Amino acid sequence: MPAWPPAKVLEGQYVRLEPLTLNHAPGLLAAADPETFRYMIWTPEPWGVDGFEKYVQLRQEGGVPFAVMLKESGEVVGSSSFLEPREEHKAVEIGHTWYGEKHRGTVVNPEAKLLLMSYAFDELGCVRLQLKCDDRNERSKAGILKLGAQPEGVFRNQMIMSDGHLRRTAYFSVISSEWEQVRAGLVERIERFSYDQGPASASGQ
pLDDT exceeding 90 applies to what percent of the chain? Predict the structure, then answer.
C-alpha cells in the first residue's frame, strides 16, 4: 500500500522540502551537531555519514520524512516528517523536526511548517494535525505554541528513552477550523522576514 501522506517536493519562497533519501545524509551530517538530538527518539549512530544513512533509513521506515533545504543554495539545513498517519480519520502528525544551529530562529521553521500544514489541510483534507515533544524541551514547546497550535496536555511515562529516561510527552494540535488563523500567522511571520536583512534576522521558531 502506498505511503500516506504521499511523499512529494514542497517548495516555498525560501525553503524547499524534498523526500528524504540516502543522498541527503552528508548534508544532514554537515548541518547537525550531537546536541541537536538530545531529546530525539532517533539518533544517528555512529556519528558520520554511515550513521546518518542508517538514520535516514529509520526515518523512512517510521514515517514520511523530508530534507529541509535552502531554496537558493540547495544547502540541507535540517529535517521534518509526517508521522502517525491515520488516513481513515484524516489525521497526521508533524514531528522529528530539527535544524542546524545557525538556522534556528530564522524563516526556515515557519515556512517549512506552512508548507507541511498546507499540504495536510489543503491537499489531503486533514481535520487534525498533531505535534508533540519531550516535555523537557522548552524551546520546542515554545516554538510549537508560536505556530498557533493548542496544548492538549502531557502523557506521563509515554516512552522509555535510550538512556532509560521515562519521557513525559507534551501534545499539541491544530484542527481544520483553526487552520486559516494559523496560516495567516505563519504568512505574516514570513512576510515580516522579507523586510529583514536575511535568515539570521528573522523571528524565532
Answer: 85
pTM above 0.70, yes or no: yes
b/e per residue, 44-54, with b = 16+ CB within 10 A? beeeeeebbbb
d(CA 82, CA 74): 22
Written as one letter, the residue type at 164 is G
Q: How many CB atoms sit inside 10 A of residue 121's CB?
A: 22
Output the CATH code of domain 10-201: 3.40.630.30
Virtual CA dihedral for 187, 191, 194, 196, nearest 10 degrees?
Answer: -110
29-38 own/partner pairs: CB under 8 Å, 24+ apart: 30/76, 30/100, 31/75, 31/76, 31/77, 31/78, 31/99, 31/100, 31/103, 32/78, 32/98, 32/100, 33/100, 33/101, 36/98, 36/100, 36/101, 37/98, 38/137
pLDDT digits (tens, 9 = 90+) for 160-184: 998 899 999 999 999 999 999 999 9
Q: How far apart are CA 44 and CA 59, in angstroms?
A: 11
DSSP annotation of 181 reads: H
